[in-house]
Design brief:
The chain is α+β, with helices and mostly antiparallel strands. It is 53% helix and 16% strand. The two termini are 77 Å apart.
Length: 468
C-alpha cells in the first residue's frame, strides 16, 4: 500500500509540475528575447534624433560610438555605412525602399532595421543587432532552477505520501495481526485504534466483536454446563432403579452404563467450567494458565484407531445381540495412530454405530472396518439398511434426514478435518449406507517400518444369537 500511495503521489505531482513547468519555461524564454529586442529597438530609436539634425559621417560616428558601435550601424544615403553591418543586403533595400521597420532573425542573432526619413525625401536606415547569446541569456539557468524546484516538490510529495501510507499500513497490519490471532484462538487479543478515522472505526469494531465473541463463548459454556447438570436428576433416578433391580439379568450392565454416563457428564461439566481457548480448527482446549502451566502449545494426543474401535464395537455388540443384528469388525493389525484424543475418536465411532441403530430396523446387520493406507486410516461403517438418499444434506451440521439432531455425522466430519481427512457417504457392499471417515496418520506412524510391509491380519467377531 505504501508503494501504491507513493506511486500515485509521484504520478499526480509530476503531471502538475510539468503542466506548470513547460509554460513557465516558454514564458521565461519569451521574456528574455523580448527584453533583448526591446533594448535593440531603444538603441535604434536613440539615433533617429541625431540623424534628423545632421548626417555628417563624423557626427554620426560619434553618436554610434557613444551607444554601441558593435551592435549599431547606420546606412546613410549614398551607400555610406557607419558602425557594424549584420543585415542582409536585400532587407536593407526593402527597408529603404518601402520605408518599413523590419525585424529579422539571422544565423548569428536578431536584426532590427528602422528607416529614418531625412530632408529632401532621403532615407537613412538604422540597424540594431542582438547576438543569439543575448537572446537566450539567463534562460538555461532559469530552466535549471525551475526543474530543481519541481523535482523537490515531487520528492516532497512522495515522502509525505509515504509517511501517510506508512501510518495507514501500520494500522492495517495491526488489525490484520489481531484478526489472525483471534482466528488462531487468542481471545485476549485487542487492537489500539489508530490511523485514519475509517481504520480507527474498524479497530473499535474489531474490539467490540472480540468482546462479543468472548461473551458468547462464556454463555455457551455456561449453557452446556447447566444443561449437563440438569441431566443428573433423571440419571440419579435411573441409578436408583438399577439398584432396585438387584441381581436381575442385565442389572450389572445397566449400572455400568449409567456409571459411564455419569462420568461423561462430569467431564462435560468440568470442561465447560474451565477457562477455554479456541483452537485453530474451531475446537476448544483447556487454558494452561488455570493450572499454572506454560503458555506454550501442549502436545497433541495420539490414539490407536484399531484399539478404540474394537472397544466401542464390543460395547455396542451387546445391544446388537439383543436386537438380532449381525455385528462384524474387520480391523488391520498395522499401526493406526492418529492425532486425536481417544474420547473424540470414541465419540466418532459411537455416532456412526448409533446412526445404524437409530435409522435402520432391528435385525439389520452392520460391519465396522479399519483399514490403513499409505497416508491415512479409513474407518468405514456399512449396514444392510435402506441407505442415505441425500449424502450432502446428511453431512450438513444440524440437518437431519431421519428425525435425529443431525449432529452425529458432523462430529465425524470435524474429527476428520482435524487430521486433514474427510467423510464420504456412499452405497456399501451390504446394500445400505457406507460412511467412510478418513483420518490422517500421525507422523510417528508414517515413519514406522516395523510391521507396515507385512500383510494386514484381519479377524471377524460375530455377536451371539439374539435372545428370545
Amino acid at each position: 500500500m505504501r508503494r501504491a500511495l507513493a506511486g500515485v503521489a509521484l504520478a499526480v505531482t509530476s503531471m502538475v509540475a510539468l503542466s506548470f513547468l513547460i509554460p513557465l519555461a516558454l514564458l521565461v524564454q519569451s521574456e528574455a528575447r523580448g527584453r533583448a529586442t526591446t533594448e535593440a529597438e531603444q538603441r535604434a530609436a536613440a539615433l533617429a534624433p541625431v540623424l534628423a539634425l545632421t548626417t555628417r559621417p563624423s557626427d554620426v560616428q560619434q553618436a554610434v560610438s557613444g551607444l554601441d558601435s558593435d551592435r549599431l550601424g547606420v546606412h546613410l544615403p549614398g551607400g555610406h555605412v557607419i558602425g557594424a553591418e549584420h543585415a542582409p543586403p536585400g532587407s536593407l533595400d526593402r527597408a529603404e525602399r518601402d520605408r518599413e521597420t523590419l525585424a529579422l532573425a539571422t544565423s548569428t542573432g536578431w536584426v532590427y532595421l528602422q528607416p529614418v526619413i531625412l530632408a529632401e525625401n532621403r532615407v537613412a536606415v538604422v540597424e540594431s543587432f542582438v547576438p543569439r547569446s543575448d537572446l537566450d541569456r539567463g534562460v538555461a539557468l532559469s530552466w535549471v532552477v525551475m526543474s530543481l524546484l519541481a523535482a523537490g516538490l515531487v520528492a516532497g510529495s512522495v515522502v509525505v505520501a509515504d509517511r501517510l501510507g506508512a501510518r495507514v499500513v501500520r494500522s492495517s497490519q495491526s488489525l490484520s495481526r489481531a484478526s489472525n490471532a483471534l482466528g488462531s484462538g487468542d481471545l485476549e487479543v485487542r487492537v489500539e485504534p489508530a490511523g485514519p478515522p475509517e481504520l480507527q472505526e474498524a479497530g473499535s469494531a474489531f474490539n467490540s466483536m472480540a468482546d462479543r465473541v468472548v461473551r458468547l463463548l462464556a454463555m455457551e459454556r455456561e449453557l452446556v454446563a447447566d444443561l449437563s447438570h440438569r441431566l443428573r436428576t433423571p440419571l440419579t433416578a435411573l441409578h436408583l432403579e438399577a439398584e432396585r433391580m438387584g441381581s436381575a439379568p442385565g442389572a450389572e450392565r445397566i449400572t455400568a452404563a449409567i456409571t459411564h454416563l455419569e462420568t461423561e457428564l462430569d467431564s462435560i461439566i468440568s470442561a465447560a467450567r474451565s477457562p477455554l481457548a479456541v483452537g485453530p480448527l474451531g475446537g476448544v482446549t483447556e487454558d494452561p494458565d488455570k493450572h499454572g502451566g506454560s503458555t506454550e502449545a501442549t502436545p497433541e494426543k495420539l490414539c490407536e484407531v484399531s484399539e478404540v474401535v474394537r472397544g466401542r464395537v464390543e460395547f455396542w455388540s451387546v445391544l446388537a445381540a439383543q436386537q438380532g443384528r449381525g455385528c462384524r469388525l474387520v480391523a488391520t493389525a498395522e499401526p493406526t495412530q492418529v492425532r486425536l484424543p481417544q474420547d473424540d475418536l470414541a465419540a466418532v465411532v459411537d455416532a456412526l454405530i448409533g446412526n445404524v441403530f437409530q435409522h435402520t430396523a432391528e435385525g439389520t446387520a452392520f460391519t465396522v472396518r479399519v483399514e490403513r493406507t499409505a497416508q491415512a486410516v479409513v474407518l468405514a461403517v456399512d449396514d444392510a439398511g435402506p441407505g442415505i438418499a441425500d449424502p450432502d444434506r446428511a453431512l450438513a451440521r444440524g440437518v437431519s434426514v431421519g428425525g435425529s439432531t443431525g449432529l452425529g455425522l458432523d462430529i465425524a466430519h470435524r474429527a476428520a478435518r482435524a487430521t486433514r481427512g474427510q467423510v464420504r457417504i456412499t452405497r456399501g457392499p451390504m446394500g445400505g449406507a457406507q460412511v467412510r471417515v478418513t483420518l490422517g496418520l500421525a507422523a510417528e506412524t508414517k515413519r514406522s517400518t516395523g510391521r507396515s510391509s507385512r500383510r494386514a491380519r484381519r479377524f471377524a467377531q460375530r455377536s451371539s444369537a439374539p435372545r428370545p
